[in-house]
């Protein structure tokens, strides 16, 4: 049932999206039919409620309407195909008799569809969709056997007429080639083709329905990296081209609609809150972040019609969540215990939530005062007591959400402090344990911490440039040269032990040179004619005058490093939700 519900909601959103592109005003009888269907789909609780004729009627009304455009008619037919496939996959619970009248309506609407001609290639593609819909009808064999002979004759007649058009295949191939797009690095932030982004939205619903409990980390990245940043993006007419702003606003509306549908699902709110917001760290507060994003959009006041639609959806999403919580509050305690035995008790969730808040407070303290933050983490049981270099290195490598990469780099690069004397020479008063510096601030501990940290990376058989890129992606190098020197020395020692180089100094010097090259090539303040050339980089690094197994570094090896860095900058962004440091 949830698969069918997900398919219907996805097709409603896809059709409304095309409607926005073709028509300025969205208030029409056709859209009212889709909106009414969406409300019913939310309310239906049994598979028998999903009566096929009722579900397909708004889509078929668009197919029959002579005032619609080719793209809108085509999308409606695609939706019909998808919904029929969803019903076909539920044949064990859906009788052929209930589908018989729906299939008759589909054949009648598709074989007699009329629309306004716009683009020749797009209009011809509608004919291919007619073939696809009729083919889908024929695949519903149990219901097709009960169709009237006249209905079957319409199917054969339509297919025969279309097959006589030799232009269909050529135009379909041309349309495919013209609409092939390149996916950007982060499709959920900005994409050059809204059709690509729209094609991914049904996958979001299917992932939640089928694999939600098994993709906890991935789903967290999708919500926090895909939906929340889009909803919290402020669009300014003065900063963007009109077409780019319209594309971003359209995508923002679609993501808001997706979140509204998710918040209508009780499992998304309840399971999401238990799985993420009340779970031990490093899980993020997914439900809270989603609601905060909707609140951010709902309170933003603008006279723009496009923005007002997003604001309305944001308010609707918050209302959906409140209605779900209200319905749960009205349930009797017996019904609640019978239906939610797998959920922890409210007292347990409250304790978990409070402990997670304590963890987040400790991370905030760590970002401003690392030593005090480590002490708080240890005293709260998040780190062992006493703190060991391996435990702290593993913790820093995990990079819990909210931890500042700059602070991690400062902790790794700091020299440490000398041990305190047992008594003060002037006052001759013994130093108490509370006054003494913690062991994790000592010089010896920080040296062991750096070594333990680099050992958390698997760099075996990895080229040095890729190893350095992976290493630097987990934190941000401090600005002080001595701190960089200590971190790179530990990194070079690890690479040497992995037999990547015959000499630690060679790995160290080459790593330092690559960092300088990355800064030189990708610094906007350096003129193009002043940037380091490939020949200069090779000249500076081919031979350091050290013993590197008796041979200098090969020039092809250095040239490949130069082009690798020139085309792919070292990045340590804190805002990349899909970055490798999260996995």
What would you say this structure looks like, in words?
The chain has helices at residues 2-22, 29-43, 52-64, 70-88, 96-111, 120-139, 141-144, 149-163, 167-178, 194-211, 216-231, 242-264, 266-277, 286-298, 305-330, 333-339, 346-368, 370-379, 389-398, 405-413, 443-454, 464-472, 481-497, 504-521, 534-541, 555-567. It has four domains: 1-180, no CATH class; 207-343; 349-423 and 430-441, Annexin V, domain 1; 484-582, Arf Nucleotide-binding Site Opener, domain 2, CATH 1.10.1000. 31% of the residues are buried. Helices cover 65% and strands 0% of the residues. The radius of gyration is 31 Å and the shape is elongated. The protein is mainly α. Residues 92-97 and 166-192 have low confidence and may be disordered. α3 (52-64) packs antiparallel against α4 (70-88) and α25 (534-541) crosses α26 (555-567). The longest helix is centred in the middle third of the chain and has 26 residues, at 305-330.
Kindly report how far apart the N and C termini lie. Answer: 33 Å
Segments where pLDDT lies below 50 for 5+ residues? Answer: 92-97, 166-192
**How many structural units, i.e. domains?**
4
Number of strands: 0
Principal-axes geometry comes out as elongated
How confident is the prediction overall: mean pLDDT? 77
Computed structural class: mainly alpha
Rg is: 31 Å
Q: Which percent range fits the helix content?
A: 55-70%
Number of discrete helical segments = 26
Work out the strand percent. Answer: under 5%
Biggest beta sheet summary: none
- H and E string: HHHHHHHHHHHHHHHHHHHHHHHHHH
